[in-house]
Design a protein that fits this description.
With 428 residues, the chain is α/β, with parallel strands linked by helices. The protein contains eleven helices and 16 strands. The strands form five sheets. A seven-stranded parallel β-sheet has the order 3-2-1-4-5-8-13, sandwiched between helices. A three-stranded mixed β-sheet has the order 14-11-16. The chain has a two-stranded antiparallel ribbon with strand order 6-7. The longest helix is centred in the middle third of the chain and has 21 residues. It starts with 44 loop residues before the first strand and ends in an 8-residue tail after the last helix. This is Udp-glucose 4-epimerase.
Length: 428
């Protein structure tokens, strides 16, 4: 058995500083013990920035399960080193059961905005072939700040990382002729449009005029460039980033960029070995509910009980994180196969169904057989009452659809908490 893969600086054998020590993982096989500095040959890789975070880690796992070699870049500012070991272990178990060889995985403990570190990493993956100059076939970018409330308090922090950092990163990728890019966007780009729609379509927020057929009437409609009603700096950083990427693609058609607009990811891998474990205190519903279920906080705050919804609580399109992760595989495959309309394309990743906050809490209580004390408080700045996707475009053009339900997500989350040993013994 091999020792666990360690954090290494690209092209060297000396460990790169990580904020927490490597975790032994003696279960890992030799073909998973891959790190930077080895001869990559002409193996193809997918680069995943922020790949140890909640969505990034689940996407990294799904990429490995699908047979892709991966390079994870993560500065560990909001994640932990041992997530890498969990990803590799689950990939090994999957491949062993399937009778296939595990793909390769690398981890670089670096900030994606560190041009020097990223330049060295990209240089180690340079190749010389008639068709390309790098063995990195695509980039999936998760390394953005994402807390709405924090973005309102510290907007410059968000613009510097989410927008300025993206510009610098895209310029570096362009220098290395790596031009297939999947961007982690958000339903927040729709802003208050969600309040006036039964479901949000991609045409509601576009970066150049679009003509499309209304599915209800089959009439031809036109979308005007831009979007109004974005309620917070976080959402604006996502809109600005999409606009920048659309402009890059328009100026250079050799680029292919897919922006995936996430709705509300929840749950965790069904194994119970990989979940959501941020360093910082999250404000979204499921992690907050976890803190109550594990006894870390006494009650769960319900923000707004006077929304124009059946029970007064906000309605969201909650999507299982593993379904969301598979959406990135589908996008990568479509980009590689040339199945994208144009060079820049947006897709909603959601279920198409909404659930209220109170409904989610009830489902968590049913699954865990535990009560979740709640406190009803005023609405949060930057929130909207309803936000539900129309995911038809992803179904037709990417061949992707969700497979897991809200209850599945709650079951998987409870399984993760029990296996992680963080639950208390109090029951209702």
């Amino acid at each position: 058995m091999a020792s666990s893969p360690s954090c290494h600086s690209p092209g060297t054998s000396s460990p790169l500083f990580c904020s927490d020590p490597p975790t032994p993982a003696t279960e890992l096989e030799d073909n998973l013990d891959e790190h930077s500095g080895q001869d990559h040959g002409y193996d193809e890789y997918v680069l995943v920035t922020g790949g140890l975070g909640f969505i990034g880690s689940h996407t990294s796992l799904e990429l490995l399960k699908a047979g892709y070699n991966i390079i994870i870049v993560d500065n560990l500012s909001n994640s932990y080193r041992d997530v890498f070991e969990r990803i590799l272990l689950l990939a090994k178990l999957h491949c062993s059961a399937a009778g296939t060889k595990c793909p390769k995985a690398e981890l670089s403990c670096a900030d994606y905005r560190d041009i020097s570190a990223m330049s060295i990493l990209l240089a180690t993956h340079a190749v010389v072939t008639p068709r390309r100059s790098s063995n990195i076939i695509g980039v999936i970018h998760f390394a953005a700040y994402k807390e709405v409330g924090e973005s309102i308090k510290h907007p410059l922090k968000y613009y510097q990382n989410n927008v300025q950092g993206l510009i610098e990163f895209i310029s570096l990728l362009d220098d290395h002729n790596i031009k297939s890019f999947i961007f982690s966007s958000s339903a927040s780009v729709y802003g208050t449009l969600s309040e006036n729609a039964s479901g949000l379509r991609e045409e509601a927020c576009v970066h150049e005029q679009e003509t499309y057929l209304d599915p209800a009437t089959t009439n031809q409609l036109h979308s005007e460039q831009g979007c109004t009603g974005i309620t917070n700096p976080y959402g604006r950083t996502k809109f600005f980033a999409e606009a920048i990427l659309a402009d890059v693609c328009k100026s250079d058609p050799s680029w292919t960029v897919i922006a995936l607009r996430y709705f509300n990811p929840i749950g965790c891998d069904s194994s119970g070995l990989l979940g959501e474990d941020p360093r910082e205190s999250p404000s979204n519903l499921f992690p907050a509910a976890i803190k109550v279920l594990t006894g870390q906080t006494p009650e769960l705050s319900i923000y707004g009980t006077d929304w124009a919804t059946p029970d007064g609580s906000a309605i969201r399109d909650f999507i299982h994180v593993s379904d969301l992760a598979r959406g990135h595989n589908a996008a990568l495959s479509a980009a590689r196969d040339g199945r994208i309309q144009g060079t820049f394309r947006t897709f909603n990743l959601g279920t198409g169904s909404g659930h209220s906050v109170l409904e989610v809490i009830q489902t968590l209580e049913d699954v865990s057989s535990r009560g979740i004390p709640t406190k009803r408080v005023s609405r949060r700045e930057g929130d909207v009452g309803v936000c539900v996707a129309v995911p038809d475009r992803a179904g037709v053009e990417l061949g992707w659809r969700t497979e897991r339900s809200l209850r599945d997500a709650c079951v998987d989350l409870w399984n993760y908490l029990r296996l992680d040993g963080t639950t208390t013994t109090t029951t209702t």
